[in-house]
Every structure is written in structure tokens, then in C-alpha cells.
Design a protein that fits this description.
Length: 583
């Protein structure tokens, strides 16, 4: 038995990249088998929101009619500002994926595999950096892929899932601050990873930055060359700013308008809930709690002097997990900082940091004990193996339940609050497999309040539904070559007419060839005086010159970075695909 185990370990170590790909593909395939067989798409509250974002940019690229700030094909062709401030780089990436995906179904399956590959390889990369036992690494990796935020992309299209997939890569670079000498700490890699997160999801960036502050302080404290250390960190921040200038600039442009925030919710409603089995995003299973308990006890009582790094993981992981529960005084925090209700919203988001730290810490402790042939090592390995099976079964069970809901003609969609949805629910299933990706967006329409220009956030989403969604069919929509939107309609007489799009401070409205006066209500939807006969209104966006500069700084910076990485890889003949050994 030991000989067979040794051969398997030797093969895994020699061909770890291939092995990792095979294992992730198998785990993902097992998880998605029921879904693929049923050809099911899981549709939740965020699904239509993000699909609108990606479809809008997909159509812009396809037609060549570009508008960086305004939604001209998605979001009811309303001119909403979404992609410019909400993951612009990621929106472009997904728009390109839509060119190779025949339908939303194929898109969802493809992206499910992609997110698992990114998250899985990231966890293995972090494991190698910490010299974890190879068997332990793969067990903990499978647990990571089956819990928390990673499965939520498939089960709810939460964008934070992609941030969670990149988190292990970020922690692997943050390890350099506390493991290596100051001269070995590289500024570029971490800056690139954080810039990628900035191009995906703003809140994920802020949460991960909180953890990085802890690693930074520890690194600064132990550094013998603090000036050099701070210089490298400063260079990293500069690189990040150049790579993220478009995101920062977009937010600054948006800030010039009075906008609404997402719907306010009580923080106590969105904390981790204790479950017997469920451990995806909001659920905190008893098995996961047991892993945390064992890890903390071992870190404090057994390995405290042997591995300060393991102790750090245990404390940080448990602390951030604690922040995600109702044990933390969130009601008091909410009373002191009421804005958290519509900005942060959900304390369970701290699992974004907690879970990778908990799992990698557990793996590190187990590896150390196994190397020392301590009986606790075998116990922890057995417990991790049981937990892996437990979480995999739980994940498959959740997918099975979602498939049943999808196949139910009275439901089809999951837990969501659409403004409009077709009564003929089976039509949604047909639309998810249609080559015309706009079909689903016509059958399922949301009225989110996020980033809407309005005098008050109160009822902004409802107003958007009544003043934009309900009225868009009264006008003929056309996108012009310069990315502006044109509305045309006939009026029986000269009268006040409310147009179904929203206006920001930089928006410009031309009516019948001339700039015109207009009135804005609570929601910044313009009301103009239409003439008798045919009327044509054109909405455009006046992009600030300074933002154009920021945008090109971003583009040029990414080109230079990618070019440098390719040159360095080829020059040193160290393409990562050729690194085929574990150590």
C-alpha cells in the first residue's frame, strides 16, 4: 500500500500541473453532471443584472458602436452607467466569451469550469509556496471549490465569486512580505493581481485589502530594510494605480452625479447561518466549524512554537469568520454607520478572506504533523477527507435541488425579485438555449437601483420600472455610430413627453437637432416638450478629457505589463507550463 501511495505521490509531484487540471476538471464535472444532463441554467437575482452588462458590451463590440459609459444595448437601452464603474475589464472578458458561446447555457457551463480552474490552480500555487503535503493540498483544494463563494457563481451569479477565485493567488504573493528577504519581494505580481480584482469587483478589492494590511504590517515589522520594503510597496501601489486608472476614473465621473445605492438591508439579516450540511456562501456547516476548531486548537497548543505562519492563518481565518457571524455586534455597527446597510450589506462576505486562510492553514498544520509522523496528522487528514466528501455531496445535492426547480414549469427561476417576468416560465428555458442572447433579457427584467441618477434613493428601482421599463416600447430605439442613443416617436400634438432613459451630469440631450431644456423628476428621467409629428431625441455622454487620459494610461500599462511578462518568460525559457515538479 505504501509503495502504491508513493508512486501516486511521485506522479502527482512530477506532473502537478496536469494532475491539477485533471482533478479540477473531474471535480467540476461531477458537480455539474446533473446540471449538464438536464441542460439547466440557474437564474437568480444577479443573473439578469450581469447578463445585461455582458450582453451590452458584446453587442457594442459586434456592431462597432461603442459607448464606454452608457448602456446602449443592455438595461433596456436606458443609458445607465454600469460597466464603467462595475468591473469594466471583467465585462469585456465576458463579452468576448459570448462570441464563442452559442447560448447562455453554454456560457454558464464554460464559466463554471473557468472559475474552478482559476480558484483551484490558485490554491495549489499557494500550497506549493508553503510546501504542503501534495495529498493534503488536493483535499483542501476540493473543499475550497465546494464551499463558500466559488460555487455561488453557478448557483447565483455573484460577482464576488471571481474575486474569491483570485484570493489564493493574492495570498501567495502576500506571503513574500513575511517569508522572504526585502530584496526578494517583487512589486509587480501583487499589483497585477489586485488590478485584476479591481477590474472585476470593487467591494472584493476593499475586503482583500483589509487582509493585506495585516500582512503588510507583519512584513514591515520584521523587515530589516524597512526603507526598501516601503519603496517596493509604493512601487506596487503605483503599478496598481496605472493598471486600474479606468476604474478609479469611472468612479470619479460617477461621483459627480447624484446617484442611488443598492437596496438597504439590515446587516444582521446577512450574517452566516448555522446549518447541519449547507456551507455555500451564507451557510456555516457544523463540519466546517469542526475544521476551524481543530485548526485553532492545534495552532495554539501543538504548533505554536513550530509554525508562527500556521498560527497566523488560524487566528486570521477564525477572526474573519467571526466577523461574518451575528456574534460580532453588527447592530451596534449599523447604528453608528448606517451607510453600511447599502454599501457593505452582508457580513458573510468576510468568508472571502476567512475560507482560503482556514483551509490553507488547516492544510499547513496537517502537513507539518504528517512530516513529523505525529498521530494528530493522520487524524486531521482523515477529518479533512471526510469533510471533502461531505462538502462534495452537499454541493451536488444543492445542484440537484436547483435542477428540480429549473425543470418545474411554475418556477424555472430561483430566488429573485424581477420587475417583470413572463408568465410562461418554460419560455425562459428556451431562451437560455437560444442563439439570440437578448431573448432571456426580454423575458426576465430587473429594476435594480444601483448607480441610478436620482434625487433620492427611495423607490428609485420602482420608478425606474415605471418610467423606463414600462415606457421603452412606446419609442423606436436606435444606436448611432458614435455610440449615442436615438429615440424617435410621433406626437399628435405639441406636448410634454417623458423619455425612457436616465441622465447623469455629463449626459447631453439633443431634441430635433437642437439642445433643449428638460425637466428631471426624482429619478433623473428627462421630460421634454415634443412637437407635433415626428420627434427625434439623441442622448450622448460627454466624456471628460482627463478620463480619456486615464483610460489610455490603463490600456498602455496593461500592454507594457503583458509584453514584459511574455519577454521575461521567453528570455529565461521558464514558461510556467514547463515547470512540472511540485518542489
Amino acid at each position: 500500500m505504501d509503495e502504491i501511495t508513493g508512486k501516486i505521490k511521485s506522479w502527482l509531484s512530477k506532473y502537478y500541473l496536469l494532475a491539477t487540471f485533471i482533478i479540477i476538471t473531474l471535480v467540476t464535472g461531477i458537480s455539474l453532471f446533473i446540471q449538464i444532463k438536464a441542460r439547466a441554467n440557474f437564474i437568480y437575482g444577479d443573473t439578469a443584472f450581469h447578463y445585461n452588462r455582458f450582453y451590452d458590451l458584446y453587442r457594442q463590440i459586434k456592431t462597432g458602436n461603442f459607448n464606454y459609459f452608457q448602456a446602449i444595448y443592455g438595461f433596456n437601452e436606458s443609458g445607465r452607467m454600469i460597466n464603467a464603474v462595475y468591473g469594466p475589464g471583467f465585462a469585456f472578458f465576458n463579452a468576448m466569451l459570448l462570441f464563442i458561446c452559442q447560448s447562455w447555457f453554454s456560457y454558464q457551463i464554460l464559466t463554471d469550469f473557468l472559475i474552478n480552474l482559476i480558484a483551484g490552480f490558485g490554491f495549489i500555487h499557494l500550497s506549493r509556496k508553503l510546501n504542503l503535503n501534495i495529498f493534503v493540498s488536493y483535499i483542501m483544494m476540493i473543499i475550497f471549490l465546494s464551499t463558500g463563494y466559488i460555487p455561488v457563481w453557478n448557483l447565483g451569479n455573484q460577482l464576488m465569486s471571481w474575486g474569491a477565485a483570485i484570493t489564493p493567488w493574492i495570498f501567495a504573493e502576500a506571503m513574500n512580505w513575511i517569508q522572504r528577504t526585502t530584496k526578494q519581494v517583487k512589486a509587480g505580481k501583487l499589483a497585477i493581481l489586485m488590478a485584476i480584482v479591481a477590474q472585476i469587483h470593487n467591494l472584493t478589492l476593499l475586503i482583500v485589502a483589509v487582509a493585506l494590511v495585516i500582512f503588510f504590517l507583519i512584513g514591515l515589522l520584521h523587515s530589516k530594510e524597512k526603507v526598501v520594503f516601503l519603496r517596493n510597496i509604493g512601487l506596487s501601489i503605483l503599478i496598481f494605480l496605472c493598471l486600474s486608472a479606468n476604474v478609479i476614473g469611472g468612479l470619479l465621473v460617477l461621483k459627480q452625479s447624484q446617484i442611488t445605492m443598492p437596496q438597504s438591508v439590515s446587516l444582521l439579516v446577512n450574517v452566516l447561518s448555522l446549518h447541519k450540511f449547507y456551507s455555500i456562501r451564507t451557510g456555516l456547516s457544523l463540519v466546517l466549524l469542526l475544521l476551524v476548531f481543530v485548526q485553532v486548537v492545534v495552532a495554539l497548543l501543538v504548533l505554536r512554537k513550530k509554525s508562527k505562519l500556521n498560527l497566523l492563518f488560524a487566528i486570521m481565518g477564525a477572526a474573519f469568520l467571526f466577523l461574518g457571524t451575528r456574534l460580532f455586534p453588527w447592530q451596534i455597527m449599523q447604528n453608528i454607520f448606517p451607510q453600511l446597510k447599502d454599501s457593505f450589506q452582508a457580513p458573510f462576505r468576510f468568508i472571502l478572506i476567512a475560507y482560503p486562510l482556514i483551509f490553507i492553514g488547516y492544510g499547513l498544520a496537517t502537513s507539518i504533523l504528517l512530516k513529523e509522523k505525529h498521530i494528530l496528522g493522520k487524524i486531521m487528514l482523515s477529518l479533512a477527507t471526510i469533510a471533502m466528501i461531505f462538502f462534495m455531496v452537499g454541493h451536488v445535492k444543492t445542484i440537484r435541488e436547483n435542477v428540480a426547480n429549473y425543470n418545474n414549469d411554475t418556477t424555472v427561476i430561483g430566488n429573485s425579485w424581477p420587475y417583470k417576468v413572463t408568465k410562461n416560465r418554460p419560455k425562459i428555458r428556451v431562451a437560455m438555449h437560444s442563439k439570440d442572447k437578448s431573448e432571456f433579457l426580454k423575458l426576465y427584467v430587473n429594476a435594480e437601483s444601483d448607480y441610478l441618477p436620482a434625487s433620492s434613493s427611495q423607490n428609485a428601482g420602482l420608478l425606474y420600472g415605471k418610467e423606463v421599463i414600462d415606457r421603452e416600447k412606446l419609442f423606436k430605439h436606435q444606436v448611432l455610430k458614435n455610440g449615442a442613443m436615438q429615440l424617435s416617436w410621433y406626437s399628435k400634438k405639441s406636448q410634454k413627453t417623458q423619455l425612457p432613459f436616465v441622465m447623469y451630469r455629463q449626459s447631453q440631450l439633443i431634441l430635433n437637432g437642437k439642445e433643449t431644456k428638460y425637466q428631471l423628476g426624482q429619478l433623473h428621467v428627462p421630460t421634454v416638450t415634443a412637437k407635433k409629428g415626428k420627434n427625434i431625441a439623441v442622448l450622448s455622454f460627454k466624456t471628460p478629457v482627463w478620463f480619456v487620459i486615464a483610460f489610455w494610461i490603463t490600456i498602455i500599462s496593461w500592454i507594457l505589463i503583458i509584453g514584459y511578462l511574455i519577454y521575461k518568460s521567453v528570455h529565461k525559457r521558464r514558461l510556467f507550463l514547463l515547470k512540472l515538479t511540485w518542489q
